[in-house]
Amino acid sequence: MIGLIGAMSVELEMFMHELQDRKEEEIGMDRFVSGKLYGVDAVLSVCGPGKVNAALCTQSMILRYHPDWILNLGVAGSGEIGVNIGDMVIASAAVQHDMDTSPIGDPIGYVSKIGLVEIPCDETLHERLVKAAESIEGLHVVEGTVATGDQFINDGERREQIRDRFHAKAVEMEGAAVAHACYMHHVPCGIVRSISDGANGQSEMDYATFSTLAAIHAQQVVEKLLRGEA
Ligand code: ADE
Questions:
Q1: 98 part of the active site
Q2: Can you give the pLDDT at residue 214?
Q3: Beta carbon of 153 within 6 Å of any ligand 1 atom
Q4: According to the model, what pLDDT value does residue 230 have?
Q5: Does 76 sit in the ligand 1 pocket, CB within 6 Å?
Q6: Whose CA is nearest to atom 2 of ligand 1?
Q7: 94 CA to middle of ligand 1, Å?
Q8: What's the gap in Å between 120 CA and the centre of ligand 1?
Q9: Can you tell me which atom of ligand 1 is nearest the CA of 149?
């Protein structure tokens, strides 16, 4: 069994249509849809935006379905100049850019209990996702850190601050929370994010224009991986 988590329904829509022998179950306010996806046992859930929604959904998925691994997929804002709308970011690690206990001596982003700033993604999954993305002609694939926070970033200065602090290639709102929950339960995790906007002053407009297409592209990468084509 593998797990797929997206924040919005558009980020899993293609897979929801492809899923066979589907069963549905609710845990709290999270809905889990399981079945066969390209012949693979899978469970899917739309977690809703933000870190708490993502962490709760991930933990429920782990405890109920015991997935071998979990992917968080969807769209993101660009983390730096040179990462453009339409590019695909495959995370090697994720950080919580808005986690800040620096007044008591910790580095910004430090997550107590797990004792990390950078929460690692599974190396094998990362490599397979890179291969899958690179097999799509014309797709620019970027590897690196994804920065997660409970903020839609639409300000170039804030984006630069996050990039300077964490070398982030993409900014989004769930990846590090999924990775955090997976880390706590020793479940391998991968993050695939397609860039929908520049996370700058134009980001609401770009997001409205490009997020659906970007969400489809991220699903195409994951489809390649599930079909064993990469
Ligand atoms: N997801 C897509 N674009 C984003 C942005 N600019 N900030 C946070 N999450 C996003």
A1: no
A2: 96
A3: yes
A4: 73
A5: yes
A6: 76
A7: 14
A8: 21
A9: 8
Nearest atom, ligand 1, residue 78 CA: 6
Query: 68 an active-site residue?
Result: no
Tallying the residues shown for the chain, one arrives at 230
pLDDT computed for residue 187 by the predictor = 98
Task: Please check whether residue 83 is in contact with residue 142, taking contact to mean a CB–CB distance below 8 angstroms.
Answer: yes
Give the list of residues 6+ apart from residue 40 with CB closer than 8 angstroms, or none.
2, 226
Kindly give the parts of the chain with pLDDT less than 50.
none
pLDDT of residue 153: 98
Residue 154: the pLDDT is 97
Phi, psi of 224 (to 5 degrees): -55, -45
Q: Does pTM surpass 0.85?
A: yes
Predicted pLDDT at 198: 97
Tell me if 33 sits within 8 A of 45, measured CB to CB.
yes
Verify whether ligand 1 is closer than 6 Å to residue 85 (CB atom): no
Q: What is the pLDDT of residue 229?
A: 87
* Ligand 1 atom nearest to 153, measured from its CA: 7
22 Cα to the center of ligand 1, angstroms: 31
